[in-house]
# Entry
Amino acid sequence: MEWLPASGYSDYEVSDTGRVRRVTPHKLGTRWPVDRELTPQLQGRDSHHAYLRVKIGQKYVPVAHLVATAFLGPRPDGHEVNHKDGNKQNNSVTNLEWVTHKENVQHALQLGLRNPADWSGEKHGMAKLTEDAVRAILATPRGETGRANGTNALATKYGVCTDTIRLIRRRAIWKHIE
# Structure
């Protein structure tokens, strides 16, 4: 196992297998001995898809970032860490690489870790509308702005902006709804 300084954290080292340890004495003495490995914690709700992180000072730092920065070099602009095998808890340097966000998403799709259907419609985390609401909007005849079935009235009824109603009616968004 090889240890290198953790970039940006002078009191710590990181190993090529994803371990992190303190290498200088702590100001409070023996309670935190030198070479003590930090215990990683899961970051995320689902333990199968969670990243490992360690607490350094008052801040939580992803272990993958520490390993990648130490062994692969500084993070290039617009890049993020990718776990080649899809296991976010395998922080071995041989499993990590710097990629763009687009490449990371494509990789997750190839491994079956993400499903494009999970990003659309009411499953999307930012969705304000349900599929039933979109069907009702599409079924409502177009009317003048001031009428009950007009764009403004529908936007108010469903808590969205008028552009959202127009885009739904033009089939620019929510295209999968019949």
About this structure: Residues 82 and 147 are 52 Å apart (CA to CA).
